[in-house]
Amino acid sequence: MVTIYGIKNCDTVRKSLKWFDAKGVENKLHDFRVDGIDVKTIAGWLDEVGGKVLINKRGPSYRNLSDTDKATLEQGGPAAAEILVANPTVIKRPVVDFGNTRTVAYDEARWAELAGV
User: Fold this and answer.
1) CA-CA distance, 83 to 11, in Å (whole number)?
2) If I label 44, which of 20, 82, 86, 101 is the partner at 20 to 30 A Cα–Cα?
3) What are the pLDDT digits (tens) for 79-93?
4) Does residue 53 contact residue 102 with C-beta atoms inside 8 Å?
5) What positions carry a catalytic annotation?
């Protein structure tokens, strides 16, 4: 089963869910706002894909962060993960967890490869 992390009212997350359903790939949505997210999970993502990939600097949520928080996100580490837990809408969506691998953002070609469809 594939876990799609994001926010249910995000257009890209909805588009992702439809893509996986259309391909017959079993999936579930993990909504940051409803289900929450923990520091350990986000720290793992930061280690795996890096902040440049995981953090959405173009959205209003990032722009509304303090300069101190933005600097902490640049440095990475556990403190950056804590900021992302408190502000999950700063995470680029969707994060798709295939079990052994995660992808960030909408990427049909990579998903097809990882899901074998």
Assistant:
1) 24
2) 20
3) 999 999 999 999 999
4) no
5) 10
Confidence of residue 77 (pLDDT cuts 50, 70, 90): confident
Edge-first strand listing for the sheet containing 102-104: 27-31, 2-6, 95-97, 102-104
Calculate Rg over the CA atoms of the chain.
Answer: 14
Closest by CA to 1, choosing from 15, 14, 21, 18, is: 21
The pLDDT of residue 76 is above 90: no
- Domain positions in the chain: 2-115
Q: Residue 7: pLDDT above 90?
A: yes
What distance separates the 2 farthest-apart alpha carbons in the chain? 44
Q: Which CATH superfamily is domain 2-115 in?
A: Glutaredoxin (3.40.30.10)
